[in-house]
Amino acid sequence: MGNDSDTSAVFASTISKEYDILMGSLYGVFCVLSLMGNCILLLVAYHKRSTLKPAEFFIINLSISDLGMTLSLFPLAIPSAFSHRWLFGEITCQLYAMCGVLFGLCSLTNLTALSLVCCLKVCFPSHGNKFSSSHARLLVVGVWCYASVFAVGPLAQWGHYSAEPYGTACCIDWHAPNHELSALSYIVCLFVFCYALPCTVIFLSYTFILLTVRGSRQAVQQHVSPQTKTTNAHALIVKLSVAVCIGFLGAWTPYAAVAMWAAFGDATRVPPAAFALAAVFAKSSTMYNPMVYLLCKPNFRECLYRDTSMLRQRIYRGSPHSDPKERFGSNSQRHKDMSISTRFSNGQQESYGACLHCTENAGLCHVTPPQRTACVLTGSTYREVTVGQLSAKPQDDFL
C-alpha cells in the first residue's frame, strides 16, 4: 500500500463521493446476501450429496464461482469505494481484475452448460437419460478451463487489465482497443465467445424447453381432468427458464453494452458513472443465482426446511428453560400441523402428514392415500399412472 502506483491518478475515483458511498453500501449488502445465499446452497447440497442429480452439479459449481467472486472482489471494492480511490496497488489490481473475469465468465459459462443439459433432458430424454454424474463433472472442469483462457489472456499480453474508468476497481482495459490490435482481438473474442454465444445458447435452449413443455402439457390435458391441467413440474420448468434468462440479461447486459461502447466507439465519451452502474448490476448476480435455486428448486427447499427444523429442535431441547411437558405439547402440535391434509380439486385428500411421519417410523405406519389415475397414450399402447406420477416424473427428469 505504499507503492507509487497508489498515488497515480488512474486509481483516483472519477465519480462523486456520494456515488462512491452508495456503491460501497450496495456492495456491502450484496456481499452479505451472497455469502448467506451461496453458503446455504452449498450446505444443502452437501447434506443431499448422495442423491444429487447430474444437472445439480452445475448449480453447485455456479454457487462456488459466485462465492469466489464475492470473497475476492467485495473485500477490496468496498473499502476502496468508501475511500474514494483504489487502495491496493497495481499488482493487486491485476489479480482483482483476473478474479473478476475468471469467476464472472465461469458463472456465465456454467449457466450456458446448465441450459444445454436441461434442454437435453427435457427435449431429448433418450439422450438426456444417458447423461451421468461423470459427464457433469467433466463438463464442470471444461467450464473452468474455458473461463481460465480468457482470464489469463491479459496476463499474457493478450489484452490488458487496468483500473475501471470510475477508478475504485479494476477490470479489462476497455480503452486499449482504440490503439492496440491485440487488445481489439481480445475484446472481439470476449464479446463473441463469452457473451453473444452463451446468450444465444441460453435463449435457444430454454425456448426449446418451453415449447416441449407446452406440447407435453397439451397431450396430458387430453387424458387428465381439467382440474389438473397445470402440474407443478411444468410451473417449475417455466420459473427456472425465465429466472435464469432474466438473471443472465439483467446482470451482464448493461456491463457488456457499456464495455462495447467504450471498446468500439470513442472511449472518452463514455461516462464513468455508466461503468459504475453497470458494474453494480453485474456484481448483483452473485446473490441472485442462489436465491433462484433455493426458492424454485423443491428438493433444495425441502432439504433446507428439514435442516432448519432439526436445528430449531436441537436448540429448543438444549434450552435450560424448556419444560418436558411443554416440549411434548409442541411436538404433538407440530405433528398435528404436519398431518393437515391437502385436498385435490375433486374433493379427495392426500395426507402429507402421514407420509412425513412414515419416514421416521417406517415399520409402524402404512398409509396408502387415495390416488387418481390417467391413461397416457404411447403410440398404439397406453398405460395407467397416477396423477402424482405425471407431475413428479418430469420434475425429476428435468433436474
Q: Would you mind describing this structure in some detail?
A:
One of its GO terms (cellular component) is membrane. It is a multi-pass membrane protein. It is found in: Membrane. This is Opsin 7, group member d. The protein has 399 residues and is mainly alpha-helical. It has one domain (7-220, 234-309): Rhodopsin 7-helix transmembrane proteins (Rhopdopsin 7-helix transmembrane proteins, Up-down Bundle), CATH 1.20.1070.10. The chain is 68% helix and 6% strand. The strands form three sheets. It has a two-stranded antiparallel ribbon with strand order 1-2. A two-stranded antiparallel sheet has the order 3-4. The two termini are 47 Å apart. The relative contact order is 0.11.
Summarize the structure.
The chain has 399 residues and is mainly α.
How would you write the strand order of the largest sheet?
1-2
What is the third-level CATH name, the topology?
Answer: Rhopdopsin 7-helix transmembrane proteins
**What overall form do the CA principal axes indicate?**
globular
The overall number of domains is: 1
What is the ordering of alpha helices and beta strands? HHHHHEEHHHHHHEEHEEH
Largest sheet: 2 strands, antiparallel
- Approximately what portion of the residues adopt beta-strand conformation? 5-15%
| Rg (C-alpha, Å) | 26 Å
The CATH class assignment is Mainly Alpha
Residue windows where pLDDT falls under 50 for at least 5 positions: 225-231, 325-330, 332-369, 374-382, 389-399
Instruction: Give me the CATH architecture, please.
Output: Up-down Bundle
**Mean pLDDT over the residues:** 75
Which structural class should the secondary elements be placed in? mainly alpha
The CATH homologous superfamily is named Rhodopsin 7-helix transmembrane proteins
Distance between the termini: 47 Å
**Count of strand segments:** 6
How many helices?
A: 13
GO molecular function: G protein-coupled receptor activity; photoreceptor activity
Pfam families: 7tm_1
Protein name: Opsin 7, group member d
InterPro entries: GPCR_opsins (IPR050125), GPCR_Rhodpsn (IPR000276), GPCR_Rhodpsn_7TM (IPR017452), Peropsin (IPR002962), Retinal_BS (IPR027430)
